[in-house]
Every structure is written in C-alpha cells, then in structure tokens.
Task: structure prediction
Amino acid sequence: MHEMSLAEGILQVVESTARRERARRVTRVILEIGALASVEIEALRFCFDAVTRASLAERAALEIITLPGRGWCMPCGQEVTLAALADACPHCGSFQVQPVVGMEMRVKEIEIE
Result:
C-alpha cells in the first residue's frame, strides 16, 4: 500500500511548514490529487489519520480535491479527458494516449493555529 508512504510524505511537508510558521497545531490540510495519480483516496485518508496521531496534525481535517485527467491522443491529435491511465481515446478508440494532466499530487493549503 503506497498510500502509507504518501501519507508520511504529506505529514513531513505539513509538519515542516507548521514548525516554520511556529504553529501550535494543524487544523486542516487540503490536497490536490490527479485522477491518474494511482492513489486510492479512501486508503490515503485512513493512512493520513494513522500517521498524524501524536503529531501537530492530529485530528486535522483532510480535504481532497480531485483534478481531472487529460491525455494527448497520438493517432487523432486531440487532447481528451481520461478517467484512468488505460482509457482509450473517446474519439478514435486508440490506446495510444499520452497522459498530460492528472498525475500530480500536492499539498495545496495548510490551516494552522
């Protein structure tokens, strides 16, 4: 389950930022995760809850914004919406679609006290 290592990485970013800002605690973390990032959202929520125990982010609300996936279809030369990495082009049916957006994951915002 790579969501545990993702949650640990998120906590490192959050705690580093909170300490730099001399925060007493983190109340909310907002993530942006692309639809093609291969992240199981509910597993990430579970792991985030586990790794934040006894940290500055304990009981912090986790908000996740899912960004749509887009890819470039090589045969028809169009940018298309993708729900998953293995999706075919909705225009021509080709599987030669190069993902261009939707594989990212970032901490967008941290609320602190």
In short: Strands lie at 26-34, 61-67, 69-73, 79-82, 97-101, 105-112. Helices lie at 2-20, 41-51. Residues 2-68+102-112 form a domain with the hypothetical protein PF0899 fold fold (CATH 3.30.2320.50). The longest helix spans residues 2-20.
